[in-house]
Design goal:
By secondary structure, the chain is of the alpha/beta class. It contains 10 helices and 6 strands. It folds into 2 domains: 47-59 and 132-255, HAD superfamily/HAD-like (Rossmann fold); 61-122, DNA polymerase, domain 1. β5, α10 (235-239) and β6 form a beta-alpha-beta unit. It is elongated and about 105 Å long. The relative contact order is 0.14.
């Protein structure tokens, strides 16, 4: 009788001990998973943002394409399709003719000068609106303490004019135009210039753009990258450049984390 009682006591004790051990193990595993998830989110949550301009922040494609067609016509060059012209948006203006007319070396400066003259005539106030959610999202990111910059192939003067027109200059820590660098996109120089001057860590910086050249530029600078699908490239084309994230709305940046 006594032996049976002692045996039951030992079994109860062992069961309670095992239950406590299991509970402690589960609690530890839960805390570990929560810590790992938080650590991963902190590591991959962008701190700084570098944006492309045309096709990412502002819908400039209509005025660009019209200006390109008029430039080609005035210079007496063979016509190019809208798709061919659109594919050059994001390339420095001085290099566009090389893409459109690779067999006509040396026309880049004349093309750029003609384009700029016609663009100044076509660029009426309000002709190029910001994409939905851009202004609100930029201001929200800025208010949340995220430093913001712009790396564009557009000339610095033109870029700063558009930034002022959008009334976001107070949110932007730095702008880099195509004439501020020796090598344009997809070379990383525009992004590296911003990282160096502002002291940003590339691993904490997200480069956002609508073209493969933007994604390649960010990747080559060691940054995180995000492609927007509403601009001048197709989702499949953007996916082929392997961005860390692909979004269809600029406002998605408000809650974006780069996670597997």
């Amino acid at each position: 009788m006594a032996d049976n009682y002692l045996e039951r006591q030992r079994e109860d004790y062992e069961a309670r001990r095992q239950a406590k051990a299991n509970a402690a193990k589960l609690a530890w595993q839960k805390r570990l998973k929560a810590y790992q998830k938080r650590l991963k989110a902190e590591q991959l949550q962008p701190k700084n943002y570098i944006f492309d301009f045309d096709g990412t922040l502002m819908d400039t494609a209509p005025v660009i394409l019209i200006t390109m067609a008029q430039t080609i016509e005035e210079m007496g060059l063979p016509a190019r399709t809208e798709e061919e012209c659109r594919a050059t948006i994001g390339i420095r203006l001085e290099e566009v003719a090389d893409y459109l007319y690779p067999d006509r070396k040396g026309i880049g400066p004349e093309y750029a000068a003609t384009y700029r003259r016609i663009f100044a005539r076509n660029n009426l106030p309000g002709v190029a609106p910001p994409y939905p959610g851009v202004i609100e999202t930029l201001r929200a990111l800025h208010a949340a303490g995220h430093p913001l910059a712009i790396a564009s192939s557009r000339s610095r003067a033109s870029l700063d004019e558009f930034v002022a027109e959008m009334d976001i200059a107070d949110c932007i820590a730095m702008t880099v135009g195509g004439n501020d660098v020796e090598k344009g996109k997809p070379d990383p120089e525009p992004v590296l210039k911003i990282l160096t001057q502002l002291g940003w860590n590339p691993k904490e910086t997200l480069v956002v753009g609508d073209a493969p050249v933007d994604i390649l530029m960010g990747q080559r600078a060691g940054c995180l990258t995000c492609a927007v699908t509403y601009g001048n490239s197709t989702p499949s084309t953007l996916q082929a450049s392997h961005p860390d994230r692909l979004i269809s709305s600029f406002s998605e940046l408000n809650s974006l984390t780069i996670e597997d």
